[in-house]
Amino acid sequence: MARCSCNNCGQHIEFDNSMVGSEVACPSCGMDTELFIPGGEAQPEIEAPTPPYQQVDPASAATTTDQLQSDGGMPATAEGQPMPQRPGKVLAISIMTLAGGIIAILGCGFILYITALSLETNIILFFLTIVLAIYSIILGILATIKGSLMLANKPGFLSVKTIAIMQIINLISCPGFVFNLPLGIITLVFLKDPEVKNYLRSKRL
Q1: Which of 69, 134, 135, 205 is the most exposed place for a label (fewest CB within 10 A)?
Q2: Which residues are CB-neighbours of 137 under 8 A, at least 6 positions away?
């Protein structure tokens, strides 16, 4: 847009640059006046350049989406579908399994202490406590490994149900350490939850 004054009355008139040199009626005095640009010729309007459209490769866009899902705490499967979030009961099972393994190892130390005392009294009791100590050691190692793998969402070679049953049996091998009994029972109860079953099946835990 440009602006000039009427040649007759001096009224300011606004007009488009393309109308320079034309005569129009002044809106104030009604007289014909020539449109001009004071101080020079009209400058053409410069349009802002339109940014070029960037063509996006669909395969690249899909890869970026998968990366965003993984980086944002929403892991994706090979098919691009988000993996289910770990239920709180699964986390509790992992912790109880790991704790049960540590308790079994501590219980083994207690059994060995009883073994040392029984050596002087009864040879049969001595060998029996040795067997129970070996059981606690095996349970402690297996449960510790299984609990650690579950916390890391990695599959193991032994099912968590088997570990839970071994924890309950540990009450027989080490009556002084009854802590594994409730841990094993709670784990078996949690394993019946459909959400827990689906998650363990999807992660092959």
Answers
A1: 134
A2: 104, 105, 108
Q: Give the pLDDT of residue 98.
A: 92
**Shared-domain flag, residues 30 and 92:** no
Which residue range is the domain that position 12 belongs to? 2-34
In Å, what is the CA distance from 82 to each residue of 10, 69, 85, 184? 73, 8, 9, 31
Are 147 and 94 a contacting pair, CB within 8 Å? yes
The band of 132, judged by pLDDT with boundaries at 50, 70 and 90, is: confident
The pTM assigned to this predicted structure is 0.52
- Does the residue 69 lie in any domain? no
pLDDT tens digits for range 56-88: 555 555 555 555 444 444 454 545 555 568 889
Whether 112 and 176 share a structural domain: yes
Q: Quick check: is 130 in a domain? A: yes
Closest listed residue to residue 114, CA positions, set 122, 104, 172:
122
Residues 189 and 123 in one domain: yes
Helix axes 194-203, 180-191, angle to 10 degrees: 90
- Domain count for the chain, please give it: 2
Residue 7, both tokens:
């040649």
Closest CA to 73 of 85, 62, 64, 81: 85
Take residue 101 and report the two structure tokens written for it.
């393994």
Q: Where are the alpha helices (DSSP H) in the chain?
A: 58-71, 88-118, 123-151, 160-173, 180-191, 194-203
Same domain, 197 and 130: yes
Q: Do 30 and 97 have their domain in common? A: no
